[in-house]
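call fold(seq) -> tokens
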Amino acid sequence: MAAVDPPMLAVITEEGIKQSVGKTHAVELFESLDQVPRAHFPQATTEAVQQYAKTQLGTTPGSESWHLLLQHQNGTHRPGQRLSSQELAEMLQVNPPGTVLLVLLMNKVPAAEGDMLLFFKFYEPYSFTYTYIDCDFYPPTTRLVDLHPHMCALASLPRHSPLFSYQEERTDALDELDGQATLASWLQDTTDIICFCTVHHCVQECTPVGFFLLGPFKARAKPANYSQPLSFKNVVPVMGGPSEFSKEKHRLWTTTADNPRLWNLQIELDDGIRVHSSRAELAAYSGYFRTLFTSPESFSETEAAVVRLKELSGPAVRAIIEALYSHKITIDDSNAADVLKACDRLEIPVVKDACCCGTTVPRLQRNWQMCRGVLLDAGGAFGTCSG
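ret:
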């Protein structure tokens, strides 16, 4: 029997993860492991590998976590599913060509066999950067919502801030996940891993804060709560240019579309623009229109063919209503303020969140802070304000 060459061994510590963490691909842990030390170890046995790690790397028993190193189609790298002792032994015996084993030297160890290692990345929307902030082992029975308090603490958010989780469906799209789903519910196939992205939309400050959970999950082709793709740009702002938004229909649509009183409507704005719509669509997305069309106190508006809106931009309202049908809207410096104002007035959070997640509003915020500083300086010079 021909001798089997030992696979390459790539070694990375938590400090190495911090230095190599993906900074442009949000759902990747590593962008490049070219600088990570690699070596051949002498014998293809589990004991030899563990002895090598102990003598050459100074690790303590149980502190290392063994994975296959996988390269994604976008060129970045991920640790594959954590290998058990038996799987590691089998891999050492078979050793397919080009195999690279990744050993992660973590500060934490699993409390029980089968615990899953999760990595946490933090997204800073103003500097467009990602940083590695934590990792830990969790039981497979852990629900996504069970992780939220810890993630809020990592980002100095209130403990019960609302967070929304997504799964990478392809390199440019995410699927929204059920927060009650457990990590174990995604275990099915060993050919790939699933990357989770959890986002907090802080509407008041127009600041999205993202936590990216990357763990050695086994992929599932189409989970039970699979939804239509959510545009990546609605989750992670892209530097420069207008923000584009795309989202599946709101769930309230299914509860309002069968009400005949909610159809056939024109909206008239102060500037003479008229926008055709339906009561069903508006009531599905807009709290303002839902109350207007269904409240007994507003019977005249409920039956009217034309609804007049004052002090709102016609083009902004048209863009918002068209987005409710097409599920796409482009937001830039020229219309962001008008769109935000209209979304606030009409209570349409799904479009407002898209506006807040784009690059336009953060730029406007920074511009406002600069202008505010200039005004305060000028006021101080003329003795009209104290700061």
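Residues 360-381 form the longest helix (22 residues).
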